[in-house]
Amino acid sequence: MASEANTLSCEDDLFIRFNSFVLTTDEADEVVPSLNDIRSSVAECALSLIGKVITFTTKPINLYDLKNTMSLIWGNPKGLKILEIGDNLFQFTFTEERDLLCVLNGKP
Hints:
Blueprint: H1 2-6, H2 10-19, H3 35-46, E1 48-52, H4 63-73, E2 81-86, E3 89-93, H5 97-104
Antiparallel strand pairs: 1-3, 2-3
């Protein structure tokens, strides 16, 4: 039986974990995003990259400095937004697909 438990697929494991969640009464109310919210979120994510900044210090990264540095390196893409989404993990959102593609292709 132990070997069967080790062969769970990722989907099965997630299903089991999600089913183990217990919501409070405050959390139980359903939240339904509007179609416009969904469309704008999908559009924003389509022009986003996720990147991790590797440092040799425990000092937190300054978002202002990161944006200035990356803007210079990437040729000052118009409307670049940076959002911290984890431990030194950032979402870089572009307004133009060509700017995103230049970054992906390693060009300034």
